[in-house]
Amino acid sequence: MKTPIFTGSGVALVTPFNENGVNFEKLAELIEFHIENGTDAIIICGTTGEASTMPDDEHKEVMRFAVEKAAGRIPVIAGTGSNDTAHAVEFSQYAESIGADGLLVVTPYYNKTTQHGLYLHTKKIAESVNIPIILYNVPSRTGLGYTIDTLKKLDKIPNINAIKEASGNIDFVAQIAAETDLVIYSGNDDMIVPCMSLGGKGVISVIANILPKETHDICALYEAGKTNESRDLFLKYFELIKVLFIEVNPIPIKTAMNLLGYHVGGFRMPLCEMMPENLDRLDKTLKKYGLLNDITD
């Protein structure tokens, strides 16, 4: 296995917005919150961060701000993927120039390409930088996933370090573990322990936005050989994990954060407010877990 960029819980951080754009004061608070509560890495400008709605200047400024605010206290992994190879190269080189510890690179979407094109796209990005790359496999959102043969070819490129595996296919996770040296991170909160049982080194997590310590502990307990305790903690929060995906991510997690008093603002269209019946279910689940009871504005 290649050397992990981090081990444990990497939060797929939401981007707080206000009427002027990104709420940088709130973003600073969130980064401090995660450092204080044991999160093992910050993933900035990912899917959960609504990066696809950010103009280029704003996207770059958010990455820069996160790196500067973290100030080496916690690894910062920047989302720089695109369906335009040249654009992904530009953003990846920029992220390296500002001191990001690694990159999260999603497969091309919409125009998609072939497996050979996917290999060439990813190889081009990797060869343009010197920092580690985490591949992001989420075919349910992009319409394009890696095959094991493509991953085996990409594994030979030294700085292609890891994969965020969000296909939901545990058999494919096993194949990656058996046939490559890539570090594996679960891309789904509902597969943290199953993924780690196959050698995964943690998770890039949505629920960590509201439960940073607990998500860290699930991973740390497993790494420490306390597999029963890890499993029990994972199962304790399993219902909440599921409810946080009853609508398209990041709608439920950002809604939950606002209900819990984090004040992270709204969404950028085409994302929209939750349907009333789903909002009610989310509210009831947060109360069931005792998370709303202690919140004061």
What does this structure look like?
The chain has helices at residues 24-36, 56-70, 85-97, 115-127, 139-142, 148-154, 170-179, 192-197, 212-223, 227-236, 238-243, 251-259, 276-288; strands at 8-12, 17-18, 21-22, 41-44, 76-79, 102-106, 133-137, 160-165, 183-186, 202-205. With 297 residues, it is α/β, with parallel strands linked by helices. Strand 5, helix 3 and strand 6 form a beta-alpha-beta unit.
Number of domains: 1
Could you list the spans in which at least 5 consecutive residues all have pLDDT below 50? none
End-to-end span in angstroms? 46 Å
What is the average of the pLDDT values?
97
Main sheet summary = 8 strands, parallel
Name the assembly state. single chain
Helix content: 40-55%
CATH architecture level-2 label: Alpha-Beta Barrel
Estimate the strand proportion.
5-15%
Radius of gyration: 18 Å
Helix count, DSSP H or I runs of 4 or more residues: 13
CATH class: Alpha Beta
The CATH topology is TIM Barrel
Reading side by side through the largest sheet, how are the strands ordered? 9-8-7-6-5-4-1-10
In a few lines, what is going on in this structure?
The chain has helices at residues 24-36, 56-70, 85-97, 115-127, 139-142, 148-154, 170-179, 192-197, 212-223, 227-236, 238-243, 251-259, 276-288; strands at residues 8-12, 17-18, 21-22, 41-44, 76-79, 102-106, 133-137, 160-165, 183-186, 202-205. With 297 residues, the protein is of the alpha/beta class.
